[in-house]
Amino acid sequence: MIEVKDLHKEFNGVPVLKGISTNFEKGKTNMIIGQSGSGKTVFLKCLLGLHQHESGLISFDGRSHSELNIAEHRQLRKEIGMVFQGGALYDSLTIEENVMFPLKMFTNDSYSAMTDRVNAVLKRVELKDVNDKFPAQLSGGMQKRVAIARAIVTNPKYLFCDEPNSGLDPNTAIVIDNLIQEITKEYDIITVINSHDMNSVMEIGEKIVFLKNGIKAWEGTNKEIFKTENEAIVNFVYSSNLFRKVREVILSETNS
User: Fold this and answer.
1) All structural domains of the chain
2) Half-sphere exposure of 223 (CA within 13 A, CB side)
3) DSSP 8-class letter at 77
């Protein structure tokens, strides 16, 4: 479990995160949502250790992030897979080289063993005959699948995804959502997704943390979100007429 207690972060004396407490469980797709400026990106970067928080606790299965030494930080980093918003593939490297990159960084495996592992994860994300291609030769959806393959190649305990559906058409976004959720279950890992895609939230949001102005304004599941009376989350989620109508139908059925 990733545990967060009373997390505070500021920049130049301006508070950005104001005492956030929550936890993210294994085998679930945990989502962080909120408007621009809500603090969700800063929150994600604090979890990853890219920002140092002023106070509070971030604990990975009992290991306090701020108390780890250099060797322990390296071990934790090895246990983390990351899917970046734009994919962040290296244009000058082949797909095989891109996916193999974390293995070269964090393992002493033989080239043959690394190649076998690369082929295994590429097969898992349903990509074939792409090893020798370059990112520019693949579609946006295929590039995202390569990014997921690279993120899971080291068998991580924790998977972080920053806007994984950014730039994708709706059908491809559904494919990526389903793939992330399937991998979360199969690998029994802790997945944390930073997203503004409400379709993703409703489909795979088994745990949702909604941030507003640097505080946790609501948390719950994608089922509970339809029934909540929390004004902040209702106004955020149901700015879409479609979701508002769905909510009205669910509440009507519940009350009948």
Assistant:
1) 2-223 (3.40.50.300)
2) 2
3) H
Strands 190-194 and 158-162: parallel
Contacts of residue 21, defined as CB under 8 A and 6 or more positions apart, other chains included, come to 4, 5, 6, 7, 216
Q: Say which amino acid occupies 147.
A: A
Q: Kindly state the tokens that stand for 90.
A: 């290296």
Which of 135, 185, 158 lies closest to 63 in space, CA to CA?
A: 158
Q: What is the pLDDT of residue 199?
A: 86
The one-letter code for the residue type at 209 is: V
Kindly report, residue by residue over 213-242, the tens digit of the pLDDT: 999 999 999 989 878 888 888 888 776 554
**Signed CA dihedral, 90, 32, 49, 60: sign only:** negative
Query: Is beta strand 2-11 parallel, antiparallel or unpaired with respect to 55-60?
Result: antiparallel
Residue 2: alpha-carbon gap to chain centroid: 13
33 beta partners: 210
Q: Which two tokens stand for residue 3?
A: 């545990």
Rounded Cα distance, 54 and 210, in Å: 21
Q: How far apart are the first and last CA of the chain?
A: 39
Record the tokens describing residue 137, joined without a space.
């030769």
Cβ-based neighbour number of residue 35 at 10 Å: 16
